[in-house]
Every structure is written in structure tokens, then in C-alpha cells.
Amino acid sequence: LPDPSVFDHRWLEVQVATLTCPQRWVQYLRLLQESIWPGGLLPECPRPARTQAQKAAAEKQALQSLMGVLPDIVVGILGVNKCRLSWSLVLESLQQPLINRHLIYCLWDIILEFLDLSASAEESAVTSSAADTPGSPKKMGISP
Question: Which GO terms describe its molecular function (predicted)?
């Protein structure tokens, strides 16, 4: 039988890859844009403050969604209560402004690094194709 930790590690890799693929980033950015500028326009007045009941309902819905992310084997091993408690701690942590700020900075670092790497890959492809042309400085042994 394969080691369960290998399965968990691979499952986590696949989930992270899925959540951070370019299509998902486009979706995240569109959702962010739509939440800030609904219909492409800045709202004339701020949204009314949410009631405690609305906040509790949103938290309950988020907790249910997060519980659905975990595979049944993980829930079976840890138990429903520990999984729910863990996700509740995550949600509670995300209510802290300092943690949110740090998370946003880290996400932007990742996005900027990703965008820079893809731009570098495109530049290197252009450079390498230019280096293959006859008479180019690379072919002639001249460094640019």
C-alpha cells in the first residue's frame, strides 16, 4: 500500500496547482473587480454594513464550502469536528487585518513573480530565436 502522506502531498500539490493556475487568477481578478466596481462603475455610496445574522450566515456557508474541499479520507482520519474546528480557525484568522494584509502582500508577490517569470520566458524565447538567425551576434561569438 502506498504511504498515505504521499497521497496527501500529491493531492495538495494538485489542489494548489488548480487554485493557482492562470485561468483561476483571471477568475479571481474578475471577481475582485466586480466586487469593487460592480458593472464596471464605482458605486455612488458604500454598501450598507452587514448585520450579525448576515455575517453568521456567510461564515456558515464558507465553512460548509471549505469542508467540501477536503477529501473524505482526510475527514475520516481527522474526524468531522477537528476538520470543522481547523477551518473555523482559518476563517477566524482571516478576520484579523494584519493577517489579511500579510496574505495579500504574499499573494501579490506570487502573482508578480509569476508574471515576471512568464515575461522572462517570452523574452528568452525571442532572444533564442534571434540567436539562431545567421549573422546574429551570438552565432558570430560576440556577446551582446
Answer: phosphatidylinositol binding
50 DSSP 8-state letter:
P
User: pTM for the full model?
Assistant: 0.45
Running DSSP on this structure, what letter comes out for residue 95?
Answer: T
Q: Hunting for cell 504521499 — which residue is that? A: 6
Is 62 part of any domain? yes
Cell triple for residue 49?
A: 454594513
The reply to whether 44 falls in a domain is no
Its domain, for residue 60, covers: 51-121
Is the pLDDT score of 141 beyond 60? Answer: no
List pLDDT tens digits, range 4-41: 677 778 888 888 888 888 888 888 888 888 887 878 77
pLDDT at 108: 87
Burial 35-50 (b: 16+ CB within 10 A, else e): eeeeeeeeeeeeeeee
Q: Is residue 74 part of a domain?
A: yes
Distance, CA of 72 to CA of 78 (rounded, Å): 10
Name the strand (E) or helix (H) holding 46. Answer: none
